[in-house]
Structure formats: C-alpha cells, structure tokens
Design brief:
Elements lengths: L2 H10 L15 H22 L7 H34 L5 H28 L33 H22 L6 H24 L22 H19 L20 H21 L7 H27 L5 H16 L7 H24 L8 H19 L12 H31 L6 H6 L1 H6 L11
Helix pairs in contact: 2-3, 3-4, 3-5, 3-8, 4-5, 4-6, 5-6, 5-7, 6-7, 6-13, 7-12, 7-13, 8-9, 8-10, 9-10, 9-11, 10-11, 10-12, 11-12, 12-13
Length: 476
Amino acid sequence: MSKLKLKRARRQKRPLLDWQPNIRWRSPALVACIPLALIIVAVWGVAAQAQDQPLTPEYVQGVLNTIWVFIAAVLVIFMNAGFGMLETGFCRQKNAVNILSKNLIVFALATLAYWAIGFSFMFGTEGNAFIGLGGFFLSSENPETYGLAPFPEGLAIPVAFLFQAAFAGTAATIVSGAVAERVKFIDFLIFSLLLTGISYPISGHWVWGGGLLSKMPFLGEEVAFSDFAGSTVVHAVGGWAALMGAAFLGPRIGKYAADGTPNALPGHNMGFAMLGCLILWIGWFGFNPGSQLAADEAVPYIAVTTNLAAAAGGVAATITAWVVIGKPDLSMIINGILAGLVSITAPCATVSYWNAVVIGTIGGVIVVYSVLFFDRIKIDDPVGATSVHLVCGTWGTLAVGLFHKELGLLTGHGVTQLIAQVIGILTVGGFTVLMTSIFWVALKQTLGIRVSEEEELKGLDIGEHGMEAYSGFLKE
C-alpha cells in the first residue's frame, strides 16, 4: 500500500484493507431482522425436509400454526416466573425459598402428570362424555388415539400437548399462593400431581375435549358452554382448589387477633410482586391469543381485548382501593390488572373492544371487595389468588353470556347462553370442590398438611429446605 493511500486511510479513519466492509453491526434494523430470519429458516427447513409432502397452502398454514402455538406455549410457561415473583414478593422473607421452590417444581410435576395420564383424560377419544381415554404417555406411535377435533388441522400433536401442559401447570400454580407460608412441601407436591393428572383434565374434557358441557341439547342444538381460553377451565378450577386448601389449612399464625380482626402480614418485596405482575401480563399474550390454536387474523384482535381488559382492571382497582381503603394500595393495583386478565380470558375472542374494557373494569372492582370479604370470613389467602382466579374467573365466564357479540344477553340475543354459562360454572365448580376436598382431606389424615408451629414461626425456608433466601442479610 502506497504512503499516499495509507495517509488517506488514516485521515478518513477507514480500515487499511479495502475489502473489509464498514458495517454497523448494532444497527436496530439489522437486529430486528434476526428473529424474522430465524422463522424463515425454520419454515423453509421444515418444508425442505418434507420431500414427500406437497407444499400446499394448507400445509404451510399448518406449519405456521404449529410455530405460533409453540411460541405461545413458551410465553405461558414463562408465566411460572411471574407467579414465583408475585407470590414471593407478597409473602414474608422467611418463606421465600419455599415459595420459589414450589413455583419451579410445580411445572415439572404438571408436565409429567399431564403427559402420563392428563392429556389422555382430557382429549382421548376412547372414553366417554365424562372422561377421555386412550394414548397414555403421549404415544407418538398412535397419535390417532387423541381427539383431534379441538385442534386445527395441521397442528402438530406434540405442540398441542405442550400448550395444554402449560395450562395444567398454571392451574396448579394458582394453588401455591393461597396455601403459602404454612403448607408442607411434600403435600403440595402430591396435591399438584393429583390436580393436574386427574381433576383438572377431567373437567377440561367436558369443555374442550368434546365432553358433557360441549353440547347442551336441552337448551338448543347449537348451544354449548363457552370458555375460550380458560376463565373457568383453568382459573376457576385453580381458584376452587386454592380455596379448599386455604380452608382446610386454616389461617397463618398471627393473621387474626383474638376478636377475629385481621392483622396485616405484609409482603417483604413489592418490587418482586410488581415484576411478577408484568411478566404475567406479557405471558397472557400467549395464554389468550395462543388459544386460537392458529396463526390467523383473530390473534391480534384477541391480544387487544386482553390488553384493554388488563389496563381497565388495574385502573378500576386503583380507584376502588383509594376510595374503600383510603390509599392506592400497590397490591390491589397488581391484583386489579390480574383480575382484568382473568376476567377477559373466557370472552376475549367474542366481545367488542368497548365490552372488553367494561369486563376488565368490573373485574378490577370485584377483586378489591373479594379480598376484603375473604379476610372477614377468615380465609387466609396471602396473595389474593382466590379472589383473582376464582371470583374473577367466574365473572369472566358469566361475561360471555352477557357480552358475546352473537349470543350475549346484553347484545340482544336472549338468555340462553347465559344459562349455559351458569350450568357450566356450577358443574365444573362442584366437581372441583368435591375432588380437591377429597385430596386435601386424604392428605390431612395421612401426612398432615400443615407444618409445625415452630417451623411456621421460624420460616419454611429453614424448616422445609434448610436454607435461606437472604443468608447474611439483616432479618426481622
């Protein structure tokens, strides 16, 4: 290289080698292209490998459906982190390890139980209107033993299973918060296996697997209980299980004074709780839009109704708590957002944007009064799980019968759908109460479901796990 060229390169601060490109590797446009490129490569790779499969529009749509439902499943699975942060923040520091452990292991247990028998009980075609059967352990050799009717054509069965297993894990995680700070770890593990392997999939079969609530001929040929993404199937089921657990366990030591007045046992880290709420809010964009089980034009619509209801629930709970309690309590703001999300889960695909705001607003108001109500009747729920998931899940299911664009009472289509919703709520609720009560009573009579008084006072981190979340830090 000549001296003149060297001097010119130094003045312009260019690379000495003329062939080295001057690319801005951190360009936002380039970074934004990376996910798109990965999706294109994945779709192209699947198409290239399927040499015997004609590249028809139906096949491509099936691949896109599978990719979208897989992404939605990952979002729902990540909600376990949100539940963990939320519950840990709402509870005391001496129980942090215990709560984090429960929220982590519960999805592992739910996956195995649902893989072994739960998916079969929910979607198996060899059963009846009460329970599905056939294809235990997700037999890849015999996929025809699973009911394909609820799934769009072309959606891969393993991905459908993964998505449904994430829902089963959510139902079990709901219970964790309501029984926090006094339940034995082993009992919670056993209960989670029973819930996700037996009780949850049976009631889920009635709604999503072609079971007894999927048709109601006594109300009309086309009438059926409607729960698009699980206000009842997932959230109310988890809420009923949580309520029974809290009732059989009894309140935490020190929660109520001698005259029955509730005492505040404040959480130790509201930053964790807020972060958990935000993770759950984001995860719900997999929960509700993913329940479309297809990559189509309904997905963004469902995402908008979901977001509107969450926002309305948070604002409504803030105002309600400010009026009723006297302060804009952060825990009520958090539960208000979650109340809006749970409330819109059933009607998210079938209501207008305005009605989504109304549904979320009512959920945000209800949850504040519900938390105060359960406190008064001495149901000790440290995180408000029963109020958020049971009460607002029930409200969201009723909202289908009120606001459905083509079937709702308040949209001029009569009371038939509302009657179907009430029947479904009572049927699923009654069954869940019966089954989970049997589980809790059996565990109480055999293993004993509550830790000792000494362990509870010292903290479950030491008593159950032999470790601390904040070792070396100053404690209360």
